[in-house]
Design brief:
single chain; 5-stranded antiparallel β-sheet; SH3 type barrels; alpha+beta; Alpha-Beta Plaits; about 350 residues
Length: about 350
Protein backbone atom coordinates (compact mmCIF):
# COMPACT_ATOMS: atom_id res chain seq x y z
CA UNK A 1 0.00 0.00 0.00
CA UNK A 2 1.44 3.33 -1.05
CA UNK A 3 1.60 6.39 1.19
CA UNK A 4 -1.13 8.03 -0.83
CA UNK A 5 -3.44 5.05 -0.44
CA UNK A 6 -2.67 4.92 3.26
CA UNK A 7 -3.66 8.58 3.65
CA UNK A 8 -6.84 7.97 1.68
CA UNK A 9 -7.65 5.19 4.12
CA UNK A 10 -6.95 7.53 7.03
CA UNK A 11 -9.24 10.09 5.43
CA UNK A 12 -11.96 7.47 5.11
CA UNK A 13 -11.49 6.59 8.78
CA UNK A 14 -11.74 10.30 9.66
CA UNK A 15 -14.95 10.56 7.65
CA UNK A 16 -16.44 7.48 9.30
CA UNK A 17 -15.38 8.71 12.74
CA UNK A 18 -16.88 12.14 12.05
CA UNK A 19 -20.14 10.53 10.94
CA UNK A 20 -20.28 8.37 14.09
CA UNK A 21 -19.44 11.39 16.29
CA UNK A 22 -22.14 13.44 14.59
CA UNK A 23 -24.64 10.59 15.12
CA UNK A 24 -23.72 10.35 18.82
CA UNK A 25 -24.05 14.12 19.19
CA UNK A 26 -27.44 13.93 17.51
CA UNK A 27 -28.65 11.35 20.02
CA UNK A 28 -27.28 13.30 22.99
CA UNK A 29 -28.69 16.56 21.59
CA UNK A 30 -32.20 15.20 21.10
CA UNK A 31 -32.41 12.78 24.04
CA UNK A 32 -30.56 14.76 26.72
CA UNK A 33 -29.86 18.42 25.96
CA UNK A 34 -33.22 19.45 24.47
CA UNK A 35 -35.30 17.70 27.20
CA UNK A 36 -33.11 19.30 29.89
CA UNK A 37 -33.49 22.75 28.33
CA UNK A 38 -37.28 22.40 28.42
CA UNK A 39 -37.18 21.93 32.19
CA UNK A 40 -35.59 25.30 32.90
CA UNK A 41 -37.55 28.39 33.98
CA UNK A 42 -37.27 30.05 30.59
CA UNK A 43 -38.02 28.65 27.15
CA UNK A 44 -35.27 30.66 25.49
CA UNK A 45 -32.56 28.01 25.86
CA UNK A 46 -34.93 25.33 24.57
CA UNK A 47 -35.64 27.50 21.52
CA UNK A 48 -31.90 27.78 20.81
CA UNK A 49 -31.29 24.04 21.18
CA UNK A 50 -34.20 23.22 18.88
CA UNK A 51 -33.07 25.80 16.33
CA UNK A 52 -29.55 24.32 16.19
CA UNK A 53 -30.92 20.78 15.92
CA UNK A 54 -29.60 19.73 12.53
CA UNK A 55 -26.92 22.28 11.58
CA UNK A 56 -24.78 21.43 14.60
CA UNK A 57 -24.40 17.78 13.46
CA UNK A 58 -23.29 18.88 10.03
CA UNK A 59 -20.69 21.21 11.56
CA UNK A 60 -19.11 18.32 13.43
CA UNK A 61 -19.18 16.04 10.38
CA UNK A 62 -17.82 18.66 7.95
CA UNK A 63 -15.11 19.83 10.36
CA UNK A 64 -13.95 16.27 10.98
CA UNK A 65 -13.60 15.49 7.27
CA UNK A 66 -11.80 18.77 6.55
CA UNK A 67 -9.22 18.30 9.30
CA UNK A 68 -8.72 14.68 8.25
CA UNK A 69 -8.08 15.76 4.65
CA UNK A 70 -5.80 18.63 5.73
CA UNK A 71 -3.70 16.30 7.88
CA UNK A 72 -3.53 13.65 5.17
CA UNK A 73 -2.37 15.90 2.33
CA UNK A 74 -0.07 17.96 4.57
CA UNK A 75 2.36 15.05 5.06
CA UNK A 76 5.60 15.23 3.09
CA UNK A 77 5.12 11.75 1.69
CA UNK A 78 2.01 12.79 -0.22
CA UNK A 79 2.56 16.53 -0.44
CA UNK A 80 3.06 16.40 -4.20
CA UNK A 81 -0.49 15.08 -4.49
CA UNK A 82 -1.69 18.10 -2.54
CA UNK A 83 -0.28 20.33 -5.27
CA UNK A 84 -2.55 18.64 -7.80
CA UNK A 85 -5.47 20.82 -8.85
CA UNK A 86 -8.02 18.09 -8.10
CA UNK A 87 -6.91 17.71 -4.49
CA UNK A 88 -6.68 21.45 -4.01
CA UNK A 89 -10.22 21.70 -5.29
CA UNK A 90 -11.36 18.99 -2.89
CA UNK A 91 -9.71 20.70 0.08
CA UNK A 92 -11.27 24.01 -0.95
CA UNK A 93 -14.68 22.43 -1.24
CA UNK A 94 -14.31 20.88 2.22
CA UNK A 95 -13.24 24.23 3.70
CA UNK A 96 -16.19 25.94 2.05
CA UNK A 97 -18.44 23.25 3.51
CA UNK A 98 -17.09 23.93 7.02
CA UNK A 99 -17.55 27.71 6.73
CA UNK A 100 -21.08 27.42 5.38
CA UNK A 101 -22.10 24.85 8.00
CA UNK A 102 -20.81 27.05 10.83
CA UNK A 103 -22.59 30.04 9.29
CA UNK A 104 -25.84 28.04 9.05
CA UNK A 105 -25.53 27.07 12.72
CA UNK A 106 -24.97 30.65 13.86
CA UNK A 107 -27.87 31.89 11.74
CA UNK A 108 -30.07 29.09 13.11
CA UNK A 109 -29.29 30.26 16.65
CA UNK A 110 -30.12 33.88 15.81
CA UNK A 111 -33.26 32.83 13.96
CA UNK A 112 -34.30 30.67 16.90
CA UNK A 113 -33.84 33.55 19.33
CA UNK A 114 -35.81 35.97 17.16
CA UNK A 115 -38.57 33.40 16.61
CA UNK A 116 -38.75 32.87 20.38
CA UNK A 117 -39.22 36.62 20.82
CA UNK A 118 -41.94 36.68 18.16
CA UNK A 119 -43.84 33.82 19.80
CA UNK A 120 -43.56 35.18 23.35
CA UNK A 121 -43.79 38.93 22.93
CA UNK A 122 -44.65 40.10 19.41
CA UNK A 123 -48.00 38.29 19.26
CA UNK A 124 -49.14 40.03 22.47
CA UNK A 125 -48.83 43.54 21.05
CA UNK A 126 -51.93 43.37 18.79
CA UNK A 127 -49.94 44.92 15.96
CA UNK A 128 -48.27 43.57 12.84
CA UNK A 129 -45.26 45.81 13.28
CA UNK A 130 -43.35 43.39 15.50
CA UNK A 131 -44.02 40.55 13.06
CA UNK A 132 -42.73 42.67 10.18
CA UNK A 133 -39.67 43.72 12.21
CA UNK A 134 -38.90 40.07 13.04
CA UNK A 135 -39.13 39.09 9.37
CA UNK A 136 -36.93 42.01 8.34
CA UNK A 137 -34.35 41.20 11.03
CA UNK A 138 -34.19 37.55 9.94
CA UNK A 139 -33.56 38.59 6.34
CA UNK A 140 -30.96 41.13 7.39
CA UNK A 141 -29.19 38.57 9.60
CA UNK A 142 -29.14 36.07 6.74
CA UNK A 143 -27.48 38.62 4.45
CA UNK A 144 -24.93 39.61 7.11
CA UNK A 145 -23.94 36.02 7.89
CA UNK A 146 -23.67 35.16 4.20
CA UNK A 147 -21.50 38.22 3.57
CA UNK A 148 -19.18 37.27 6.46
CA UNK A 149 -18.93 33.69 5.23
CA UNK A 150 -18.06 34.78 1.69
CA UNK A 151 -15.43 37.19 3.03
CA UNK A 152 -13.78 34.38 5.02
CA UNK A 153 -13.81 32.07 1.99
CA UNK A 154 -12.37 34.74 -0.32
CA UNK A 155 -9.54 35.46 2.07
CA UNK A 156 -8.78 31.75 2.40
CA UNK A 157 -8.39 31.47 -1.37
CA UNK A 158 -6.36 34.73 -1.54
CA UNK A 159 -9.09 36.56 -3.45
CA UNK A 160 -8.79 40.34 -3.09
CA UNK A 161 -11.91 41.56 -1.31
CA UNK A 162 -10.99 45.24 -1.05
CA UNK A 163 -12.50 46.04 -4.43
CA UNK A 164 -15.61 44.06 -3.61
CA UNK A 165 -16.02 45.88 -0.29
CA UNK A 166 -15.49 49.25 -1.97
CA UNK A 167 -18.08 48.44 -4.62
CA UNK A 168 -20.51 47.26 -1.96
CA UNK A 169 -19.93 50.47 0.01
CA UNK A 170 -20.59 52.70 -3.01
CA UNK A 171 -23.70 50.69 -3.90
CA UNK A 172 -24.93 50.94 -0.31
CA UNK A 173 -24.37 54.71 -0.30
CA UNK A 174 -26.24 55.13 -3.58
CA UNK A 175 -29.08 52.99 -2.29
CA UNK A 176 -29.21 55.01 0.95
CA UNK A 177 -29.56 58.28 -0.99
CA UNK A 178 -32.21 56.83 -3.29
CA UNK A 179 -34.25 55.35 -0.47
CA UNK A 180 -33.60 57.86 2.31
CA UNK A 181 -37.32 58.51 2.89
CA UNK A 182 -38.04 54.79 3.14
CA UNK A 183 -35.08 54.27 5.46
CA UNK A 184 -36.19 57.21 7.62
CA UNK A 185 -39.66 55.71 7.90
CA UNK A 186 -38.26 52.30 8.81
CA UNK A 187 -35.97 53.77 11.48
CA UNK A 188 -38.91 55.76 12.84
CA UNK A 189 -40.93 52.55 12.84
CA UNK A 190 -38.28 50.90 15.02
CA UNK A 191 -38.42 53.91 17.36
CA UNK A 192 -42.21 53.60 17.56
CA UNK A 193 -41.81 49.91 18.36
CA UNK A 194 -39.64 50.63 21.41
CA UNK A 195 -41.29 53.90 22.50
CA UNK A 196 -44.88 52.66 21.94
CA UNK A 197 -46.72 56.02 22.09
CA UNK A 198 -49.83 54.18 20.91
CA UNK A 199 -51.01 50.72 19.92
CA UNK A 200 -53.59 49.18 17.63
CA UNK A 201 -57.11 50.28 18.60
CA UNK A 202 -56.05 53.52 20.31
CA UNK A 203 -57.81 56.73 19.34
CA UNK A 204 -55.26 59.40 18.43
CA UNK A 205 -55.24 62.97 17.18
CA UNK A 206 -52.53 63.79 14.63
CA UNK A 207 -50.64 67.04 14.33
CA UNK A 208 -52.79 67.92 11.30
CA UNK A 209 -55.92 67.81 13.48
CA UNK A 210 -57.22 64.58 11.93
CA UNK A 211 -58.14 61.88 14.41
CA UNK A 212 -59.34 58.33 14.44
CA UNK A 213 -58.54 54.80 15.60
CA UNK A 214 -55.18 53.15 14.86
CA UNK A 215 -55.73 50.27 12.44
CA UNK A 216 -52.19 49.09 11.84
CA UNK A 217 -48.66 50.10 12.75
CA UNK A 218 -46.54 49.03 9.81
CA UNK A 219 -42.83 49.10 9.13
CA UNK A 220 -43.14 52.14 6.84
CA UNK A 221 -46.41 53.81 7.81
CA UNK A 222 -49.28 53.86 10.30
CA UNK A 223 -52.90 53.52 9.19
CA UNK A 224 -55.62 55.43 11.06
CA UNK A 225 -59.35 54.82 10.51
CA UNK A 226 -61.24 58.12 10.64
CA UNK A 227 -64.88 58.53 11.67
CA UNK A 228 -66.07 58.77 8.07
CA UNK A 229 -64.59 55.28 7.46
CA UNK A 230 -61.64 56.49 5.41
CA UNK A 231 -58.09 55.33 6.04
CA UNK A 232 -55.42 57.93 6.80
CA UNK A 233 -51.92 56.65 5.93
CA UNK A 234 -49.23 58.57 7.81
CA UNK A 235 -45.48 57.92 7.26
CA UNK A 236 -43.79 56.83 10.47
CA UNK A 237 -41.14 59.56 10.13
CA UNK A 238 -43.87 62.20 10.21
CA UNK A 239 -45.41 60.70 13.34
CA UNK A 240 -42.04 60.39 15.10
CA UNK A 241 -41.27 64.11 14.73
CA UNK A 242 -44.74 65.53 15.45
CA UNK A 243 -47.11 65.77 18.40
CA UNK A 244 -49.65 62.96 18.65
CA UNK A 245 -52.42 62.93 21.26
CA UNK A 246 -53.33 59.44 22.49
CA UNK A 247 -56.82 59.48 24.00
CA UNK A 248 -56.27 55.99 25.42
CA UNK A 249 -53.36 57.01 27.62
CA UNK A 250 -53.08 56.61 30.51
CA UNK A 251 -56.57 55.04 30.34
CA UNK A 252 -59.87 55.36 28.46
CA UNK A 253 -61.39 57.81 30.94
CA UNK A 254 -61.93 61.29 29.50
CA UNK A 255 -63.12 64.69 30.75
CA UNK A 256 -65.98 66.39 28.90
CA UNK A 257 -66.17 70.20 28.87
CA UNK A 258 -69.51 71.47 27.58
CA UNK A 259 -70.49 75.14 27.20
CA UNK A 260 -74.06 76.30 27.62
CA UNK A 261 -75.80 79.68 27.69
CA UNK A 262 -79.11 80.81 29.28
CA UNK A 263 -81.01 84.04 28.84
CA UNK A 264 -80.38 87.12 30.95
CA UNK A 265 -82.79 87.21 33.87
CA UNK A 266 -82.58 83.44 34.51
CA UNK A 267 -82.28 82.17 38.08
CA UNK A 268 -78.68 80.90 38.00
CA UNK A 269 -79.00 78.90 41.23
CA UNK A 270 -81.98 77.11 39.75
CA UNK A 271 -80.19 76.54 36.43
CA UNK A 272 -77.10 75.08 38.15
CA UNK A 273 -79.28 72.83 40.31
CA UNK A 274 -81.07 71.47 37.23
CA UNK A 275 -77.79 70.75 35.46
CA UNK A 276 -76.27 69.03 38.50
CA UNK A 277 -79.39 66.89 38.84
CA UNK A 278 -79.11 65.80 35.21
CA UNK A 279 -75.41 65.00 35.51
CA UNK A 280 -75.66 63.06 38.76
CA UNK A 281 -78.63 61.11 37.47
CA UNK A 282 -76.95 59.88 34.28
CA UNK A 283 -75.73 56.28 34.75
CA UNK A 284 -72.66 56.62 32.49
CA UNK A 285 -71.23 59.79 34.09
CA UNK A 286 -68.62 59.06 36.73
CA UNK A 287 -69.03 60.28 40.29
CA UNK A 288 -65.26 60.39 40.81
CA UNK A 289 -64.05 62.94 39.81
CA UNK A 290 -67.34 64.70 40.64
CA UNK A 291 -69.45 66.66 38.17
CA UNK A 292 -69.13 70.45 38.22
CA UNK A 293 -71.06 73.40 36.80
CA UNK A 294 -69.46 76.86 36.59
CA UNK A 295 -70.99 80.25 35.78
CA UNK A 296 -68.15 81.53 33.62
CA UNK A 297 -69.05 84.88 32.04
CA UNK A 298 -71.60 87.40 30.91
CA UNK A 299 -71.89 86.90 27.18
CA UNK A 300 -73.26 89.26 24.56
CA UNK A 301 -76.61 87.48 24.46
CA UNK A 302 -76.46 84.95 27.31
CA UNK A 303 -75.17 84.02 30.71
CA UNK A 304 -72.55 81.40 29.93
CA UNK A 305 -71.91 78.23 31.93
CA UNK A 306 -69.30 75.46 31.70
CA UNK A 307 -70.35 71.87 32.45
CA UNK A 308 -67.51 69.49 33.40
CA UNK A 309 -67.91 65.73 33.89
CA UNK A 310 -65.98 62.48 33.33
CA UNK A 311 -66.93 59.34 31.43
CA UNK A 312 -65.27 55.92 31.59
CA UNK A 313 -64.81 55.37 27.84
CA UNK A 314 -63.89 58.10 25.36
CA UNK A 315 -65.69 56.16 22.60
CA UNK A 316 -69.02 56.90 24.33
CA UNK A 317 -68.42 60.66 24.25
CA UNK A 318 -70.93 61.61 21.55
CA UNK A 319 -73.68 59.28 22.78
CA UNK A 320 -73.50 60.51 26.37
CA UNK A 321 -73.25 64.15 25.32
CA UNK A 322 -76.31 63.71 23.11
CA UNK A 323 -78.30 62.20 25.98
CA UNK A 324 -77.24 65.01 28.34
CA UNK A 325 -78.24 67.69 25.81
CA UNK A 326 -81.63 66.05 25.26
CA UNK A 327 -82.32 66.01 29.00
CA UNK A 328 -81.18 69.63 29.37
CA UNK A 329 -83.51 70.77 26.61
CA UNK A 330 -86.43 68.85 28.06
CA UNK A 331 -85.89 70.12 31.62
CA UNK A 332 -85.33 73.72 30.54
CA UNK A 333 -88.60 73.68 28.58
CA UNK A 334 -90.48 72.37 31.65
CA UNK A 335 -88.79 74.82 34.01
CA UNK A 336 -89.20 77.83 31.67
CA UNK A 337 -85.47 78.34 31.33
CA UNK A 338 -84.70 80.07 28.06
CA UNK A 339 -81.72 79.20 25.88
CA UNK A 340 -81.21 82.41 23.88
CA UNK A 341 -80.04 82.90 20.35
CA UNK A 342 -77.71 85.73 19.33
CA UNK A 343 -79.62 88.98 18.99
CA UNK A 344 -79.06 92.72 18.76
CA UNK A 345 -81.28 95.58 19.86
CA UNK A 346 -81.19 98.49 17.44
CA UNK A 347 -82.35 101.96 18.58
CA UNK A 348 -83.21 104.54 15.91
CA UNK A 349 -82.88 108.13 17.00
CA UNK A 350 -85.28 110.57 15.34
CA UNK A 351 -83.92 114.03 14.79
CA UNK A 352 -86.26 117.03 15.14
CA UNK A 353 -87.15 118.76 11.90
CA UNK A 354 -85.48 122.14 11.38
CA UNK A 355 -87.76 125.20 11.97
CA UNK A 356 -89.49 126.54 8.91
CA UNK A 357 -88.24 129.80 7.51
CA UNK A 358 -90.54 132.77 7.76
Amino acid sequence: MTDFQRELLNLAIWAAGSAVAALILKVIWRRVLIPLSKKTKTTFDAALFEAADGPVYWVLFATGIYFGASMAFARESVQHYGEHQLWRFCLGALYLNVVLSVTMTLYALVHGGVTWYAENFAERTQTKFDDQAVTLFNRFAKIVFLFIALTIVFRHFDVEVTGILATAGIASLAFAFAAQDTIANMISGVILMFDRPFKKGDRITLASGAWGDVMEIGLRSTKVLSFDQTVIVVPNAEIAKSTVVNHNAPDQKVKIRHKLGVAYGSDMDKVKAILMEILTGHPDILDDPPEEVFFTEFGDSSLDLLIVFWIADYRERFRILDEVNMQIKSRFEREDVEIPFPQRDIYVREQAAPPAEA
